[in-house]
Design a protein that fits this description.
Layout (H helix, E strand, L loop, with lengths): L4 E5 L20 E2 L2 E2 H11 L4 E6 L4 H6 L4 H9 L3 H9 L6 E6 L6 H7 L1 H4 L4 E4 L3 E3 L7 H12 L2 E7 L9 E4 L10 E3 L2 E4 L10 E9 L3 H6 L11 H11 L2 E5 L4 E3 L3 H14 L4 H9 L4
């Protein structure tokens, strides 16, 4: 079955990014010339997804406004003959993109946030995309599209993974492939998933990146999942149950990801995306050379 819907949990408080996230949603922090969440939505659309479900909070209205049509600004840009700026503005809300928002009343974990989208997603398979994680495009076909195509072929949930240093495994959900090697762009059945394990307990250094392709059956599993680590309903716990029922595959990212939810990851993303920018990249590289010691 083709995957056309994506769930983006955006209700979090963004405490790792304070004070910037005190009054501005962390997902609206800009990397070069776009909010982080716009890159994520563009990634979804490149994978053939045109329905976005925002699981949001009352303090995050700026996200909904960003993807809404701003008739007054469009009219003013058109009056001034600012055609390029008008096109950029309209690209944030293309006519074939459908954005729906649903509130997460209480912060009860990623699993709970995903479950909040159930009335809108219904019985369709869907993607979960963490909106503070950027995944760089690698090749003509994106990693996310390869994952959705594999789901349609194999009928098994897909989890994007990336190797991280062992000293950082306690910050991630970590997967076990029962000793199997997993090369970039390939899939393999998972035998275990552990949420934020201690280094000594980590089954591997393959960390979940923040991209999931899931069947609608995950909703019922989440509804019956008891609070786990941190007293929250963990998506990884429901995935562990799904592994026993239908099997779940890990997909090794071909490019790399950037965690813009923390300050150092955000700075790295700014560097990478700034250098790759088609208009600013060359000048940015010259600018950076002035600061090299």
């Amino acid at each position: 079955m083709k995957v056309t819907k994506a769930v983006l949990p955006v209700a979090g408080l963004g405490t790792r990014f304070l004070p910037a996230s005190k009054a501005i949603p962390k997902e609206m922090v800009t990397v070069v010339d776009k909010p982080v969440i716009q890159y994520v939505v563009e990634e979804a659309m490149a994978a053939g997804i045109n329905e976005i479900v925002l699981v949001t909070h009352s303090s995050k209205r700026a996200i909904e406004d960003h993807f809404d049509v701003n008739y007054e600004l469009e009219a003013e840009l058109e009056r001034r003959g600012k055609k390029e700026l008008l096109e950029i503005l309209r690209d944030t809300a293309p006519p074939d993109l459908k954005i729906t928002a649903v509130r997460q009343g209480k912060a009860l974990g990623l699993g709970h946030a995903v479950c909040c989208a159930r009335p809108i997603v219904g019985d369709a398979p869907f993607v979960v995309m963490l909106p503070d994680v950027l995944v760089e495009q690698s090749g003509a076909v994106s990693d996310l599209r390869l994952m959705t195509e594999r789901f349609a072929l194999a009928g098994q949930a897909q989890i994007m993974v990336e190797p991280v240093p062992y000293e950082r495994v306690s910050q991630y959900g970590v997967v076990d492939l029962n000793g199997s090697d997993l090369h970039q762009g390939k899939h393999a059945l998972m035998s275990q998933v552990v949420e934020k394990p201690a280094r000594a307990d980590a089954p591997s250094n393959l960390a979940i990146v923040g991209r999931y392709v899931l069947p609608a059956s995950i909703f019922e599993l989440l509804a019956n999942t008891k609070p786990g680590a941190g007293g929250e309903i963990q998506l990884t716990d429901a995935i562990a149950t799904l592994m026993q029922q239908t099997g779940v595959e890990a997909y090794h990212i071909r490019g790399r990801s950037y965690d813009c939810g923390n300050k150092l990851g955000y700075l790295e993303a700014t560097l990478a995306y700034g250098l790759a920018h088609p208009l600013l990249g060359n000048d940015f590289q010259v600018m950076l050379a002035r600061y090299q010691r």
